Amino acid sequence: MSEAIEVQSAVIPYIKLVLNGEDEQGNPVVNEYKLVYDYRAIARAEESVKVDLKSFEAWKKITSAMTPQLVHAGLAKHHPEVTLDQIQDKLNPGVQRPLQEALFDALFPGVMDTIRKLRAEEEKSRATGASPNAESGASVA
Predict the structure, then answer these.
(1) pLDDT tens readout for residues 63-112
(2) Which domain range does residue 39 map to?
(3) How many domains does the chain contain in total?
(4) Does 55 map to a domain?
(5) Dihedral angle sign, alpha carbons of residues 63, 66, 68, 70
(6) In the prediction, which pLDDT does 130 show?
(7) Average of per-residue pLDDT values in the chain
(8) pTM
(9) Domain-embedded: residue 134
């Protein structure tokens, strides 16, 4: 007799995106959004950028110009009234890297944590002169 395999879906997390700007009078304007990447959002994003977002290799094809489209796809659940033009007008390219890391993490939970951990270990090894391939306590000559 075979055993059943149980799969439980977690609550879909969201990315909190805060866009700071100014109105016509120069007064600060803050817009806060929840980006959710359920399968509807993933399908919208993939259709928009023509890239399989659930493929690690495909992320090499993601360009900075695609970021607003990826953000817009994630807005649909909580902010369907926001247009792509509004996102392109408000999104600052200065947040490109952390935003793409957050998007990647939403689509591949836990992978960015592993990458950060490996980067930290690599930096520590370089700082101490130890090789990550050397036995514990050994250093590179």
Answers:
(1) 999 999 999 999 999 999 999 999 999 998 899 889 988 998 888 887 77
(2) 14-128
(3) 1
(4) yes
(5) negative
(6) 67
(7) 88
(8) 0.75
(9) no
| The dihedral sign for the CA sequence 113, 49, 88, 83 | negative
Q: Is residue 49, in this structure, part of any structural domain at all?
A: yes
Euclidean distance between the first and final Cα of the chain, in Å? 59
Q: What digits encode the pLDDT tens for the residues 102-126?
A: 998 888 887 777 877 888 888 888 8
Looking at the chain, how many residues does it have? 141
Cβ–Cβ under 8 Å, residues 18 and 28 = no
Burial class of residue 45, CB neighbours in 10 A (0-12, 13-18, 19+): buried
- Displacement of CA 112 from its chain's centroid (Å): 9
Three-class SS string for the chain?
CCCCCCCCCCCCCEEEEEEEEECCCCCEEEEEEEEECCHHHHHHHHHHHCCCCCCCHHHHHCCHHHHHHHHHHHHCCCCCCCCHHHHHHHCCHHHHHHHHHHHHHHHCCCHHHHHHHHHHHHHHHHHHCCCCCCCCCCCCC
Q: Give whole-number Cα distances, 5 to 1, 9, 24, in Å.
A: 13, 13, 58
Q: Residue 28 has which token pair?
A: 């600060």
Share of the chain above pLDDT 70, in %: 91
